[in-house]
């Protein structure tokens, strides 16, 4: 089951998340320890992106020293203006940074870039046919975007969506997409750290989920499972997910998450209680709406 986890790398290149314990990206000398430990514990994937600062280059340095021991999933930047050849150029830059001949998965950021940028998806398909990419896909934020892709019969090899105790919007699509051959990766299971935020956050713009957060913490105390462990176990229990991405800002945090994963299981009643805590308010569950 641990190979269902994928190592998120945004903190390798950027400060990220409202509850981050760092003021900047993880220092390079520490970063290289993280995939070493992840590999030892059985993780097989690293999730990264063109726009994650130096993350691709740092991963490339690790792969050059240790061999192709991870499947890498990276992402194009979102295009304000797209011209033919731009996806190919960015892909080749990612390959160079990663020091690889092929990338396991390469994703477009958002359905708009697939639907409105004429030629982009075809360009991705050509890169796959030429062997530079094993799988192509899309990272999306809203169910309406997925509806558009389904309506146009565009089925990605990899679909990356947010999924967490609070955000269960995409769950109803998992069976359909898997039946059509898509590999489904979940991100934002910690909702950029909101689950670990100080109480003061829940007296402001996140007040709507204050009682939900208190209930999550109550279950954590009752079970002896950390809040991060509850988030992990909840996502890993979803059979529609192939990968669950966990971002970490230190080796210690990765160890904490893996220890949490390895602990006691959720009971059926605890799982159903967590299922009932979902929130549909996009101002809360979509970090792009946060001020």
Please report the number of helical segments: 14
What overall geometry do the principal axes of the alpha carbons give?
A: globular
Order of helices and strands: EHHHEHEHEHHEHEHEHHEHHH
Strands side by side in the biggest sheet: 1-2-3-4-5-6-7-8
Regions with pLDDT < 50 over 5+ consecutive residues? 15-20
Instruction: Give the strand content.
Output: 5-15%
Number of strands: 8
The biggest beta sheet reads:
8 strands, parallel, barrel
The N- and C-terminal alpha carbons lie at a distance of 36 Å
Radius of gyration: 19 Å
Mean pLDDT, to the nearest integer, reads: 90
CATH architecture: Alpha-Beta Barrel
Helical content stands at: 40-55%
For CATH, the homologous superfamily is named as NADP-dependent oxidoreductase domain
By CATH reckoning, the class would read Alpha Beta
Given helix and strand content, the structural type is alpha/beta
Structural summary, described in words:
There is one protein chain. An 8-stranded parallel beta barrel has the order 1-2-3-4-5-6-7-8. Helix 8 links the parallel strand 5 and strand 6. It has 14 helices and 8 strands. About 2% of the residues have low confidence. The two termini are 36 Å apart. By secondary structure, it is of the alpha/beta class. The longest helix has 14 residues. Helix 5 crosses helix 7. The chain has one domain: TIM Barrel (Alpha-Beta Barrel).
């Amino acid at each position: 089951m641990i190979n269902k986890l994928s190592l998120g790398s945004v903190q390798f290149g950027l400060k990220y998340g409202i509850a981050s314990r760092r003021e900047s990206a993880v220092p390079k000398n520490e970063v290289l320890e993280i995939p070493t430990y992840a590999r030892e514990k059985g993780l097989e994937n690293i999730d990264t992106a063109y726009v994650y600062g130096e993350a691709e280059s740092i991963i490339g340095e690790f792969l050059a020293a240790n061999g192709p021991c991870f499947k890498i999933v990276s992402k194009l930047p979102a295009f304000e203006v797209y011209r033919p050849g731009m996806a190919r150029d960015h892909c080749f830059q990612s390959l160079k940074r990663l020091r690889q001949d092929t990338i396991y998965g390469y994703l477009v950021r958002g359905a708009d870039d697939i639907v409105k940028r004429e030629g982009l998806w075809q360009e991705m398909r050509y890169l796959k046919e030429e062997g530079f990419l094993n799988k192509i896909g899309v990272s999306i934020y809203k169910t309406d975007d997925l509806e558009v892709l389904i309506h146009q019969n565009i089925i990605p090899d990899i679909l990356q969506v947010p999924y967490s105790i609070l955000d269960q919007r995409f769950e109803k699509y998992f069976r359909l997409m898997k039946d059509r051959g898509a590999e489904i990766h979940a991100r934002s299971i910690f909702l950029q750290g909101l689950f670990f935020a100080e109480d003061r956050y829940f007296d402001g713009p996140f007040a709507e989920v204050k009682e939900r957060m208190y209930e999550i913490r109550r279950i954590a105390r009752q079970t002896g499972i950390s809040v991060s462990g509850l988030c992990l176990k909840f996502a890993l229990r979803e059979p529609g997910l192939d990968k669950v991405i966990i971002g970490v800002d230190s080796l210690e945090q990765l160890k904490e998450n893996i220890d949490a994963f390895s602990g006691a299981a959720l009971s059926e009643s605890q799982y159903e209680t967590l299922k009932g805590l979902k929130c549909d308010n996009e101002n809360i569950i979509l970090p792009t709406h946060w001020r």
